[in-house]
């Protein structure tokens, strides 16, 4: 273990580092450095002046660390510019310290920040060769890494301008940082080296040797985006830094000189011929010659008889250049007495055998990529993560945040599983999409986002293969890249709420029959009128009916809701839309400027619609949808999260009555009943269809809300009549919503919805016209115009024919508005029995037959010697003047001289 102490020579080194180095620099100006600095006309004294004017204090910044999105106790995704997992001094294997010090700075614990011997040698070599080479102490290398990281942290993309039409991407800015830190030549290179020295000396005054050494190993690059010794150990050997052995430590220590050259995760290996000559095999299969001096130490061991030819071949067969670098580190460790010669031989002949641990980042590696992408959009667009875009990018990629999301893996798995089973990833001839989102109604927490497509951020792949997409269909243009979809009849919720808020009853009666759209009032935007007599049809070309909002909601009757809207102010409906948190998918206010908006012509995101329905389910308390529960820094301190609030939007009475109407949708016979799990948990909901190319199903318990959209994410191909695995595309919404809500009911439960307000269920009494004697058509028109529904019953006995009302029930007075009145046509068979009293029997029989009565008989007979010979009628049954069906039997009571 390296010692944390300062020796006398170390203290002297500190003094010489500041005073002596200026002298060294001045001497070197005349000896070797002068040609470079003389470009600016500086002399020896100028070099000292330049040094003295340089900044003398460097405060190391917080290390860049990956930001981690969590879902419960599982990692959802990581994002980073530098993949790093900082460790403490004790969490690094002691042999790793030995390896890096022996190879990079063997006098580390003796000098004061600058190794004058190594630096002087390097400067002389630089002057002779014209190149800027090593010689930096660990402290100087730490300084360089701190400066590179600071530059990368501040790197920004540059938008194209007139003077710079190309601009600069953020990746290009990052590359410039690295180049400026390590590749500057000439006077700039020397000045950079001098600045590193000054900073290194200052660091040694502020921090202990162990602190600087630890800082270096935590900040150093080990190839690609792997930074820090622990991340390197995990990346290349799938172990922690504390578990590194001698050979592994030597590999990693050798990497820091040129990380991307010596990394062992890209080159597939080397091939070695029989005599041990090695060739690098590149990923593309090509073969490159290798400088055999890189593994000369193996040849020496073989020639000395310490290893066999077979051992040499095995050791060299893999990452030949890296092997050569490892051998150098091992030799320095042996020279410094850190390892024995036997250990040197043991690890020299051991092949480099990486055990790579994948370091995937981004949403593509997530188990819930579209939820993940929605969270990323939130981070990159919400001021809680920084005032400027670059600040938010740093929060995502550099700040080492732990962001606890709202995702519930149980709900996510249920949603994605049913999505995978029941929807195709693409459909020939259309841009087919499907999305499902679930919210916790009482908090607004987004529990799951599922989508039918495969996630990619490669635009070319998405363009060539419609089964790939990066757009989050559940989101909007700010969060997810979607502009939403026409919501169809799910939008009727807002008219329903305004209807109730204005004191109207669910049982009021309106004419919901198909007719020209009535003119409508909008006190904010100007009234909507329909001078051309435009009609808006119902689903399946239904003619509609006279009914109530309760019925219109259950049956999703467009004409019924248009009749409701005509009695309201569209501006008030727009205000309901706003207070329930709904805008268009591209962030615009919905103004309700025309009749089509009543039935959902606007594009809205599924998340926004889910939030609106969750408000009703939550007793009128609106909770803005949220995907982040908690944010902590790398130090464990909490940071503010995006502001999402819960606040009253509807009164509990209005919410309860609206929920009552929406429960009718999910009951048997309602348009949404197919999506009802019928598992004992009460649910409300609403269906929606727009022009056949967008379909919706939204349903909710008191605790969880599910919104499903299936349709064209671009275009207008009809979903009806097209099938996948036996299910019509337009019907997939029911299966998805049912399965997902079933899971929600299992995991989150739900209570009975509160009872509706009786005043909003009141039934109106209206005057009931008597239509007996009117034609059937006229009677129907009279009754429907008065606010009643009409049923034509069976014919009844009547003198009137089948085209005339012979009876109605109820038959007058008043009746509940919207109730059904039965009218019965006549059968044309009723007549009046003629009065034949006093007539002779033959005359009476003739009169009755002439009136249409064919069944005539003698009922009672009394002898009377004075009666006419033919007999005389005393009375009839039915009696004369009575209305009776002509099939009625007529019995005659007679007097006769002789009775039969």
Automatic annotation (TrEMBL):
InterPro entries: Beta-lactam/transpept-like, Glyco_trans_51, Glycosyltr_51/Transpeptidase, Lysozyme-like_dom_sf, PASTA_dom, PBP_transglycosylase, PCN-bd_Tpept. Keywords: Carboxypeptidase, Glycosyltransferase, Hydrolase, Multifunctional enzyme, Protease, Transferase. It holds the Pfam family Transgly. GO terms for molecular function: penicillin binding; peptidoglycan glycosyltransferase activity; serine-type D-Ala-D-Ala carboxypeptidase activity. SMART domains: PASTA. The keyword Transmembrane helix does not apply. Residues 762-827 form the PASTA domain. Coiled coil: none annotated. It catalyses: [GlcNAc-(1->4)-Mur2Ac(oyl-L-Ala-gamma-D-Glu-L-Lys-D-Ala-D-Ala)](n)-di-trans,octa-cis-undecaprenyl diphosphate + beta-D-GlcNAc-(1->4)-Mur2Ac(oyl-L-Ala-gamma-D-Glu-L-Lys-D-Ala-D-Ala)-di-trans,octa-cis-undecaprenyl diphosphate = [GlcNAc-(1->4)-Mur2Ac(oyl-L-Ala-gamma-D-Glu-L-Lys-D-Ala-D-Ala)](n+1)-di-trans,octa-cis-undecaprenyl diphosphate + di-trans,octa-cis-undecaprenyl diphosphate + H(+); Preferential cleavage: (Ac)2-L-Lys-D-Ala-|-D-Ala. Also transpeptidation of peptidyl-alanyl moieties that are N-acyl substituents of D-alanine. GO terms for cellular component: outer membrane-bounded periplasmic space. This is Membrane peptidoglycan carboxypeptidase. GO terms for biological process: peptidoglycan biosynthetic process; proteolysis.
